[in-house]
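User: Sequence for Nitroreductase below. Tokens please.
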Amino acid sequence: MTDEFTRLRQTLDARYSCRGFHPDPVPEATIQHLVMAAGRAPSWCNAQPWKATVTHGAETVRFRDALLAAVEHDNPAPDLPWPESYPGAHGARRLECGLQLYEAVGIARSDRAARTEQSLQNYHFFGAPHVAIIHSEAALGTYGAMDTGGFITAFTLAATALGLGSIAQASVAAYAPMIRAHFDLPESRLILCAISFGWPDTNHPANAFRTSRAALDDIYDPRG
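Assistant: Structure tokens for Nitroreductase:
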């Protein structure tokens, strides 16, 4: 194995969905390095349909408050439909992740009120000082969204390499119309997800677990 692959694999293994952050802001130069690195992701015909609208300081608080109001009063209206179901192993992995989170933060599976409160932490950005709204060009449709998935992956890996924590959140994109209005984004932009990021609180209990990964046989199908 090359040194480059070893370093990449170490970054891949180190990345996790951070659900507890320190409030200290990330320097602007570091954020710019992060976004530029994510922008190296490949895309169909080099279209690069992604853009990251990133909050800083008081704007993070202003957006959080507006989002919480939308959660309370608006019906979810995502630009892309939610999954119809999570069949087989996909559902099992989803359940395992949820149970690991509740166990880490001390929430009983039967405690619906506490589970709801934990879910609402998505809209508090888990205390992160910054949130990036990730959007793509609607005219590029599914392929633009797929390309932007590569940007999201690169963003979270670059954050890890810079010593930052991050978490990609589809839940925030449920309020796409409100997000476009809040940031004055045109209707031609699809709201795909948010990424909350900042300095990770390694002592936060929600950061104490790691999800399992599928075995090679589950994801690799050699032919010939």
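The longest helix spans residues 141-161.
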